[in-house]
Design goal:
By secondary structure, the chain is mostly helical. The protein has one domain. Helix 3 packs antiparallel against helix 4 and helix 4 packs antiparallel against helix 5. The radius of gyration is 15 Å and the shape is globular. It has a two-stranded antiparallel ribbon with strand order 1-2. The chain is built from 6 helices and 2 strands; from the N terminus they run αααββααα. A hairpin with a 4-residue loop joins strand 1 and strand 2.
Length: 140
């Protein structure tokens, strides 16, 4: 796949284009990621990152920081949620690309979905794009 075709895929994919099996797998991966984020709650490194995000970011941002139920900018919410979901080392891994996609994809997709008022379908489609692009680039 060329860079151009990968970029086109990423820009044009819609939820309606996804096969049912892909949607179900994306839902499973999202739930698994959320469980990993909950497992990271209270971990010292995560609390340190959360304190930094709280000090630097807005307290009334558009995106939720899952571990504290607070809000921040998409950037800081994604940072804290990613740290929480990776610290317990329970997140998924794609061996061929040496990549933990959920930790990278879901925090960002969720933060921006919240900030933009996107639907759950849009969140899942964006997440599938993130997985596909991340894995393909990682395997290159």
């Amino acid at each position: 796949m060329t860079t151009e075709s990968l970029a086109r895929f990423a820009a044009e994919l819609r939820f309606e284009d996804l096969p049912t099996a892909v949607v179900r797998r994306a839902e499973d991966l999202l739930v698994d990621w959320f469980g990993s984020a909950v497992a990271g709650h209270g971990a010292r490194p995560v609390e340190t990152i959360a304190a930094f995000a709280h000090a630097m970011g807005p307290a009334d941002g558009a995106s939720e920081v899952l571990i504290g139920r607070g809000r921040s900018s998409p950037y800081f919410a994604a940072m804290v949620n990613a740290a929480a979901s990776h610290v317990a080392e329970q997140d998924d891994v794609h061996n061929g690309s040496v990549f933990h996609p959920a930790t990278v994809v879901f925090p960002v997709a969720l933060a921006w979905a919240q900030a933009l008022g996107a639907s759950g379908r849009q969140l899942l489609a964006a997440s599938v794009v993130g997985y596909e692009v991340g894995i393909r680039v990682g395997e290159f």
